[in-house]
UniProtKB/TrEMBL annotation:
Short name of one Pfam family: FeeM
Annotated coiled-coil segments of the chain: none
Domain N-acyl amino acid synthase FeeM catalytic core, chain residue ranges per copy: 35-191
Protein name from the UniProt record: N-acyl amino acid synthase FeeM catalytic core domain-containing protein
Length: 251
């Protein structure tokens, strides 16, 4: 084993250990949504990236029927949040559509389906203590891409963060950095080819892996049972262990 692979395995192992103390909650109650709004404001204010119109950090598309707002809880404390949109040719609502409409519609006009993560926010009080949080907060985007079998995972991000998405999620640049009216600063649009990268992503970062029942708990919506599960425990360790066992038998 090379020194570099040892480092990667060590890093992935540390993130898996943090994930052991994480739970996800799908945010649908008004009380929990208020907690998410406060966290969004705190995180954006700390980074000086508040949208130009930042009167209320809860918006209509938080309640869109293709939107899934998640809270990430570490030892039962809310530490980060992200909103995941499942975007289809028949349902085009998402954050990226409002920022880069031509490019998003082009994907959808080609018959593709997308996952669009947005409203990513990490509590600044935990950033130094938990450097794994960006990875674990974005994990539902990968879980959702597998659940819905989407063609792309989109990322509209500040140019300084593009290298992270290219390195971790093998993202391609769709739109180079440009000024956006909504935010008043530059953003770039990236896209990961979710079906193509899945194998190497899970091998390199097994904490993104999941069992089918976790995916159903995160993204399934049963009209007969309207309330989502209170907590969703990650199944990455179980799923990645199963993959290693299969590879051992047939590899």
């Amino acid at each position: 084993m090379t020194h570099m692979s040892t480092l990667k395995n060590s890093f992935a192992g540390k993130l898996m250990e943090v994930l052991d103390h994480v739970e996800y909650r799908r945010i649908e109650s008004s009380e929990d949504m208020e907690d998410v709004a406060r966290l969004r404001y705190k995180a954006y204010k700390a980074r000086d990236v508040l949208p130009v119109a930042a009167k209320n950090l809860i918006d209509d598309i938080d309640f869109d029927d293709h939107a899934y707002v998640f809270g990430v809880y570490y030892y039962e404390e809310l530490v980060s949040t992200v909103r995941i949109h499942h975007v289809t040719p028949d349902h085009r609502v998402c954050q990226s559509t409002g920022i880069f409409p031509d490019e998003i519609h082009a994907f959808l006009d080609a018959g593709m389906t997308l996952i669009d993560p947005a409203r990513f926010a990490v509590d600044p009080d935990f950033e130094l203590e938990l450097p794994a949080l960006p990875y674990l907060t974005l994990r539902p985007a990968i879980v959702g891409a597998i659940y819905f079998n989407t063609d792309r995972v989109m990322q509209h991000v500040r140019p300084a963060h593009a290298a992270f998405y290219k390195r971790v999620f093998y993202a391609d640049t769709v739109v180079p950095p440009r000024m956006t009216k909504t935010y008043g600063f530059e953003l770039t649009l990236l896209a990961s080819r979710s079906k193509e990268i899945r194998g190497k992503l899970m091998t390199r970062y097994p904490f993104f892996d999941s069992e089918p029942y976790e995916r159903r708990m995160m993204f399934g919506r049963n009209e007969d049972n309207g309330s989502p599960p209170l907590t969703i425990l990650p199944t990455a360790r179980l799923a990645s262990g199963g993959r290693r066992e299969i590879r051992g038998q047939f590899g």
